[in-house]
Every structure is written in C-alpha cells, then in structure tokens.
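User: Hi! I'm working on a homework problem where we have to compare a predicted structure to a textbook description. Could you give me the structure for the chain below?
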Amino acid sequence: MDILSAKILITGGNGFLGTHLVNEFRKQGAMQIFTPSSGQFDLREKKACQEVTKNMDIVVHLAARVGGIGYNRDHPAEMFYDNLMMGVQLMHEAWRAHVKKFVAIGTICCYPKYTPIPFQEKDLWNGYPEETNAPYGLSKKMLLVQSQAYRAQYGMNAIFLLPVNLYGPGDNFDPESSHVIPALIRRFREAKEKKLKEVVVWGTGKATREFLYVKDAAEAIVKATYTYDKPDPVNVGAGFEISIRDLAYKIQSLVGFTGRIVWDKTKPNGQPRRMVDTKRAKKEFGFQAYTDFNKGLKETVDWFSSI
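Assistant: Happy to help. Predicted structure tokens:
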C-alpha cells in the first residue's frame, strides 16, 4: 500500500495515544489522516461507523471508554457496552466499505487474572480476566474474535494488538478516570502543594504492572499497520514489571513529596501481576521498546509540572 496516498482513519486520534500515533504516521509520510471526534461521530451508532469508514484504506481503532480500577469498578456496564458496540460495528462497517486494513487495539486487560509471567499470546483464553477489568477486557477481546472470523470468512485484513499500560506526556490526569501513573503524579503533587503529611494509595502495593512509553507504542502500531498481516494477536510492551509500591516511591521522589505513603488495603489491587512476552512483536514487525522507564517517567512528571 502506498503510504503517501493511503486514507487513514484513526478513531480516538485526538486522545493521548492518538495524537502520538498521528505524529508517527506523518513522520512515515502519511498525508491523509482522518481523526473524527466523539462529538462529531458517536461510534456506538451504526450510521456514524458507516460515515467514518467510507472511502478509507486503513482503520486504526483506538477509541475506547477507559479508566483505572476505581472507574472500572463503578462503571462496568458502560465499559462493556460502549467498547463492544464501538468495536463490533466499526469493524463490520469497515468490511462493508472494503477497507484494506483494520488495526484493532486491544488491552492487556484481555488476559486471564492468573496468567503465567510473562504473558504469552497463547494464554489469552486460559481463564477469566481480573474481575474489575473484565467488562472492559472482554469487550475488547471480542475484537480478536471478530477479526479472526472476518479474516476466515471474508478475507478481511484485520489484526489485533495487545498493548500494556501506556504513560507519557499528554496522559489523562483526570482524577476520576486516570490510570495509575498519572493518578499518582497528580496526587503527590497536590499533596506537596497543600503540605500534607501523607498520601493514601489503593491496595497493598504488591501488584505489579508493565508500562510502555506512549511514543514507543505509536511506533509499534505504525510498524504493525504496514508490515503485519496474520490472525494471531500480538503483545506490545516493554518486557518488564514493577510493583505499585516501587512505582509509588519513584513518583514520590520525582515529584519531591516528603510525606509518607499509606496503603489502603481495603481497596482492590487489581490483577496480581502483569508483564508480557514481547518476542512475537519483535519477530513479526521488528518492534522493541527503547525508552528507559526512569527517563520516560521523569519526562511525564516534568510535563505535568509544566501545565
């Protein structure tokens, strides 16, 4: 496919990952990129999906209702319905519109709660997701089922990527819906400004997570878009894990908060451990994360301090 002439639809293209993805596509020479907003097109509606996919060559589906543990726990029905309807209808209408490539972006929340470390793609169906993440994770997992079904029956070129938790400048710092890194950065900064003596963090701190710098994720998606064409799902990660406890202390130090951390053990930890096997991404489309976590974390803290 000629990258200069390809018409590319990026749903969620005005969001955190989306803005970096648009920049990466443009760096590779893409000229025609369409990034409709949710205000313009409600992708839960069939008509909107028909309109945005018309005359497109490539669709990258990023748009999603997302949030941290608390948000997922409080909005399970919305997380399931909104994400399922957006994804299923968009892929169907992309097929009807003869889109040449559909890139479905899943989530590490698709994996079973007790997946062996490191998560391998072959383990995706070996159990039920962690309870607070299940409605979101399963709604996204259906994109894998759909992409494989449409490839098998219709020959549709649809692929499915599984990114880990993303972070970086421009992240969502909304206290109601942010993920763990922006949530902790905001909490520590506000505590520092108010001269508080302690910050309360959910859980025991023992759970582990893997984080991928947003620009690395954008590069992976572009590489997969242009070079990967198989039904198998692919992990997109950095290949390391860090405990929430260690993460909190790193962010506390970078922000300069000198009080203490109190762990609220009455609140959920979420999935016990997360780290993916990244061999398939490297083999199939040459992706390997390059941003050092400490460097990326400092850039994120500095960015939030500047706004």
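For your comparison, note the following. The domain at 7-167+211-239+275-290 is CATH 3.40.50.720 (Rossmann fold). The CA atoms of residues 166 and 214 lie 6 Å apart. Good luck with the assignment!
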